[in-house]
């Protein structure tokens, strides 16, 4: 072949008939192979030009014989076809593709065959010429196919022989490489196909903690220094979190730097944190034997968001010396420890006593730090001296004599007077009646009018009553410390008109002519108010009812209400016109006027607010501390109007001129607004002390706390309704030209009908140079995380910066009051925002909502939507709730 000599086996017995020529190989071990491949190179002469032949064919046969050992002899297996057929199978009849004749070059033929499945340890191959052919067998190659050793999916696979069929797949189980383990005991596998190729990989090994897979996933490498991997997963090593490091390779967790710690519940990927510093601006408001403690969050919260506070009480001797832990029981509202709010009320203290209160700020690493020997400076102290306590309840209120128009009352002094009684207050409330013309004519006290009298005696003759009417009477005592609680009310019925009236005069403080004048005024006012309300209600009823019906109809189909309260639609999120798409609220276009432009601030107050007589106001409970003083809940009883709940802001005594200007300025701002989604100013008290701002009372408090208290308690459509409330209020303010500058969920108030209203219109926000403090207001720091970048960088506050803040409020609402940017510091927030970071979508947040948030957070303020566009977008979502189905994090 190719002019090279080759050794070959040759036969050409064509001159004799009945040929039976055999060629058999030596014993061939197959090494467990189930399918054998045979390649044969041969030449064969053409029979066409061969003269005087007895027989001549151009084919020969190939056989194989299976056996477990080398047992062939010259006679075994027998040299006949039946023996091979019996134990084997005729492979094929091989025909020459290329034949040669006289004078031509010998053409070499190549044939490839496969046999199987093989079930024995080895085979013999046999070639037979039984037809008389000139055949030369030049080359025979016998082999099988296998898949070689390999590394894949962090596992090593050994040499694997292919299966018995061309289509066979032989499974091979891998062994995990060093520093890798099987997942749940299941090792990866590969499959060797009939051609000797690895295919169909299943499963994988995973690198142990401290190791990461290389790019080709053939080995696990140790994490580099200052990198770690804490989990048994095929994840890359991560750089050590903030305030931690790893000095060696293969770290599973990074060690906290000095002064930083991890809580037991912290994971390895969380940064190391530290205990908080002490609370700031701790102050107390003493009310007799109660104290209201208020403070602000620590300047450094340690990088965590699990801050809590605890209160410790100490009783001291005069001058606040020799203080020991309080032993007398006191009432702490809401509690002494585990506080998440920056306020606690302490009641039932001793009168004229000296107390020291320690407010301690803690987080989850405080105990870890203490256990390691560190002593955190995380508490602040305030000294408190209590005043005289109010008297206890008056005892044994009784009637000693009664007529048709009067009643003589007597009572016993309180069991605990706690000082000197200045006087007693007697309140008479008719049980039932109505104002009639007869009341106006005869000057008798109508049964629907409450009446209060005061006396220094322990008895009182109350006159001017109606015959045969039932009255509820209660009495309380007053000392320098204030009023004590009312006595248990008693019911007294006057006699009929035929009963003679006693000759002695009543001790009432109000004469009958005064009652007549008061009654006439009240009656006229009530009639006028009723007529006005009826006319306005009839005009408005149809439009409002239509809007509410349309919305509530779609709402009922969903059958989803607030789980904790099971509110009905009409009383849940969207009462009245607050969620109607074509709101019936129409306001005349007004422009906001800055009160500081007035030379005389009092003129702005008189122009934009309504003065209220302090006697119309009844303070019932201190509910908090505001920027200027206490915030109270009370009742407002205007002449000819129903008594209503109100919130009362008071200006604390000892105020500075600037504090007074700021206090009155806030009232002047609020007085310019009139919108159902903006907090309503009822009026001010400036002609007596203390100065007061009276606003409508919002029963459910701030939106952020309300959402956290009802986590996952609303449907998406209800949350959109909340956002629509806020956007409508901000559109109104923006249209007036007012820039809020502190829009956040904490400054949105929620009333009993769950209508949201924008509040907090303080004027005293001053930007500071300290970038970590962001900007602050007198009396309270305003976090940077709600502020637009141009505002904290260039001090540019516009309606567009309010839109940025509104986007943060959207995020707060959809995350149920979660803290924006979590535990990041203000400086980190500023850097992140400047580099393009934006808050991710909260869990289950609709995609369309998160897109709107991102629009509000455009870096270029001119590209942010206007509040009018935001209201329109939310209206579309409410009209077509299908937009809300696609989730941003799906």
UniProtKB/TrEMBL annotation:
TM segment ranges: 515-537
GO cellular component, one term: plasma membrane
Keywords, ordered alphabetically: ATP-binding, Cell membrane, Disulfide bond, Kinase, Membrane, Nucleotide-binding, Phosphoprotein, Receptor, Repeat, Signal, Transferase, Transmembrane, Transmembrane helix, Tyrosine-protein kinase
Stretches assigned to the Eph LBD domain: 1-152
Listed Pfam families: EphA2_TM, Ephrin_CRD, Ephrin_lbd, fn3, PK_Tyr_Ser-Thr
Top-tier EC class: transferase
Protein name: receptor protein-tyrosine kinase
């Amino acid at each position: 072949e190719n002019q090279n000599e080759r050794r070959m086996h040759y036969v050409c017995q064509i001159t004799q008939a009945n040929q039976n020529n055999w060629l058999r190989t030596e014993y061939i071990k197959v090494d467990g192979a189930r399918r054998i491949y045979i390649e044969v190179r041969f030449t064969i002469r053409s029979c066409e030009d061969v003269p005087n032949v007895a027989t001549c064919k151009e084919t020969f046969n190939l056989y194989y014989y299976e056996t477990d050992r080398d047992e062939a002899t010259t006679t075994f297996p027998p040299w006949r076809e039946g023996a091979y057929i019996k134990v084997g199978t005729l492979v094929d009849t091989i025909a020459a593709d290329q034949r040669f004749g006289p004078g031509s070059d010998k053409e070499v033929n190549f044939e490839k065959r496969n046999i199987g499945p093989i079930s024995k340890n080895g085979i013999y191959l046999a070639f037979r010429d039984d037809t008389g052919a000139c055949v030369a067998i030049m080359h025979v190659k016998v082999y099988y196919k296998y898949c070689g050793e390999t590394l894949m999916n962090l596992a090593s696979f050994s040499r694997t022989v292919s299966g018995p069929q061309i289509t066979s797949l032989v499974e091979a189980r891998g062994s995990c490489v060093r520093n890798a383990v099987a997942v749940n005991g299941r090792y990866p596998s590969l499959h060797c196909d009939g051609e000797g190729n690895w295919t169909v990989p299943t499963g994988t090994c995973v690198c142990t903690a401290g190791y990461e897979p290389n790019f080709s996933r053939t080995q696990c490498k140790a994490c580099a220094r200052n990198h770690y991997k804490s989990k048994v997963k095929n994840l890359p090593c991560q750089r050590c979190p903030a305030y931690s490091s790893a000095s060696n390779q293969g770290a599973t967790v990074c060690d906290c730097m000095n002064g930083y710690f991890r809580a037991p519940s912290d994971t390895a990927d969380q940064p190391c944190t530290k205990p908080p510093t002490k609370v700031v601006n701790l102050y107390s408001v003493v009310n007799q034997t109660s104290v209201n403690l208020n403070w602000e969050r620590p300047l450094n919260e340690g990088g965590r968001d699990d801050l809590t506070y605890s209160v410790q009480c100490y009783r001291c001797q005069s001058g606040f010396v020799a203080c020991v832990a309080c032993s007398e029981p006191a009432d702490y509202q809401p509690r002494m420890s585990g506080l998440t709010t920056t306020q606690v009320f302490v009641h039932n203290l001793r009168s004229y006593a000296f107390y020291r209160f320690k407010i301690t700020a803690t987080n989850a690493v405080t105990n870890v730090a203490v256990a390691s020997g560190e002593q955190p400076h995380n508490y602040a102290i305030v000294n408190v001296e209590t005043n005289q306590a109010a008297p206890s309840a008056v005892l044994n209120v009784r009637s000693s004599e009664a007529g048709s128009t009067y009643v003589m009352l007597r009572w016993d002094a309180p069991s605990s007077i706690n000082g000197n009684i200045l006087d007693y207050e007697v309140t008479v409330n008719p049980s039932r009646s109505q104002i009639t013309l007869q009341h106006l004519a005869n000057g008798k006290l109508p049964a629907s009018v409450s009446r209060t009298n005061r006396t220094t005696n322990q008895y009182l003759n109350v006159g001017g009553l109606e015959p045969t009417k039932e009255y509820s009477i209660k009495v309380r005592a007053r000392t320098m410390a204030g009023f004590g609680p009312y006595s248990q009310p008693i019911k007294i019925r006057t006699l009929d008109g035929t009963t003679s009236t006693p000759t002695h005069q009543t001790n009432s403080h109000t004469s009958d002519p005064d009652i007549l004048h008061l009654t006439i005024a009240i009656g006229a006012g009530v009639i006028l108010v009723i007529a006005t309300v009826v006319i306005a209600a009839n005009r408005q009823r149809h439009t409002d009812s239509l809007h509410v019906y349309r919305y509530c109809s779609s709402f009922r189909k969903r059958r989803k209400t607030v789980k904790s309260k099971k509110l009905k639609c009409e009383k849940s999120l969207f009462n009245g016109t607050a969620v109607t798409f074509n709101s019936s609220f129409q306001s005349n276009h007004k422009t906001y006027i800055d009160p500081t432009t007035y030379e005389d601030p009092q003129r702005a107050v008189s122009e934009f607010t309504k003065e209220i007589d302090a006697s119309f106001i009844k303070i019932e409970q201190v509910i908090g501390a505001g920027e200027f003083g206490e915030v109270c809940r009370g009742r407002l009883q205007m002449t000819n109007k129903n008594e209503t709940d109100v919130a009362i802001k008071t200006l604390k005594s000892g105020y500075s001129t600037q504090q007074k200007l700021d206090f009155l300025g806030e009232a002047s701002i609020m007085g310019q607004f009139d919108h159902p989604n903006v907090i309503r100013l009822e009026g001010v008290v400036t002609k007596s002390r203390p100065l007061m701002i009276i606003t409508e009372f919002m029963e459910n408090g701030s939106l952020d706390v309300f959402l956290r208290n009802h986590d996952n308690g609303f449907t998406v459509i209800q949350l959109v309704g909340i956002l629509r409330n806020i956007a409508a209020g901000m559109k109104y303010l923006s249209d007036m030209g007012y820039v809020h500058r502190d829009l956040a969920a904490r400054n949105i108030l929620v009333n009993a009908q769950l209508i949201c209203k924008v509040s907090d219109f303080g004027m005293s926000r001053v930007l500071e140079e300290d970038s970590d403090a962001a900007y602050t207001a007198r009396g309270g720091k305003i976090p940077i995380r709600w502020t637009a970048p141009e505002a904290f960088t260039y001090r540019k506050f516009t309606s567009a910066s309010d839109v940025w803040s509104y986007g943060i409020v959207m995020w707060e609402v959809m995350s149920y009051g979660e803290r924006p940017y979590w535990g990041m510091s203000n400086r980190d927030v500023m850097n992140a925002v400047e580099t393009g970071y934006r808050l991710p979508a909260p869990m289950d947040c609709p995609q369309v909502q998160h897109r709107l948030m991102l629009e509000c957070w455009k870096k270029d303020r001119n590209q942010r939507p206007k509040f009018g566009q935001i209201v329109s977008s939310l209206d579309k979502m409410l009209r077509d709730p299908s937009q809300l189905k696609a989730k941003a994090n799906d």
